[in-house]
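haha ok so turns out i had the wrong file open the whole time. this is the CORRECT one, sorry everyone. sequence first:
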Amino acid sequence: MTATPADAGPISAQGRGRNGRQFADLLYRRLRLRNPWNYKAPLLISLPYFMIASGRVPWDLALLGILAALCTIAGIAGVAYFINDLGDARADLRAGKDNVVAGMGWRQRALTMTVFLAAALGPWLYLPFTRTSGILLAAEFGLFVVYCFPPFRLKERGFLGVIADAAYAHTLPAVLAVLTFAYMASEPYPYLSTFLLALAAWQLALGMRNIVLHQLQDHDRDAVGGTRTLAVTLGPERLAAILKTWLVPLEIVAFAGFAIVASRSMPWLAPAYAAYVLLATGRLKLLGQPLPSTLRQGLYTYADDFYADWLPLLILGFLRTRVPACWPLAVLHVMLFRNGLRQSLQDLKGRFLMSTNTASEL
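then structure:
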């Protein structure tokens, strides 16, 4: 039976809806955007919270600024993952590693890149854009290119690649986020230079640790695909030793330095972290889970979970005391991101269900 125009309308709408969902799934899942959204974005967006509180940014500017910042964070992350997959397309195919960009046609690639660039750069029509902002953004996008593509391809340049990845994935976005909201402040933050230095050092150390862990995890596939990362060049055992002996202690020292500087405004930060370590250990025992047995597990439990789940909430508490009208930001954060409150509720629910099931079995 031939479809009439009236019949064709709903079908076309369904098709468009299905294509839209597939495209969203491509962006979020296969391009791995859920990874930075869950693990990088909560900490990154908390840095503007800190500056809003420290500089008493008016609540209306703060709310619109945060929405714009969320958009540019997602866009920049999308550009980074897209370019990385594009640069690794042939190697990933050889290694049998999933690479969504490798399967795209040129039109889909152009559309995807356009969406990401619009999300990354469009918010700067609202956010304060200065010469420094332009330099940092240019450095960010420039590093994406030289990290992934010949003749530079810093990804295969040993420690230089590790530093470059840490810079574009952690350091530059953090510094840009702080400066952007410092420009919006009603009151100058007196320790801005010291804060930026401590933050940059911590984020660089954290970024180097993260990319080394990633390279160790991908060592076998990178070796098969012919990608000579630092893990492939040095060997996983030697790089793991460098991670344990140098990079993790460097991160600990750098985070301690950042905590000392931030404690000028949030004196409860160090005690809060000490309490977190005790509570995280108690949580594992309460849930009947083993304590971390490897360095990777220990970092996830006692560092990354604090950075992503609890530190943003501590900063939101500081924001609430300094700019009470910004309470909607706390609600927005809890709704959008993983956080310690949500995880604690899930733990209690799981523990309750476990106890209920055990009681019913008895």
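The longest helix spans residues 59-87.
again sry for the mixup
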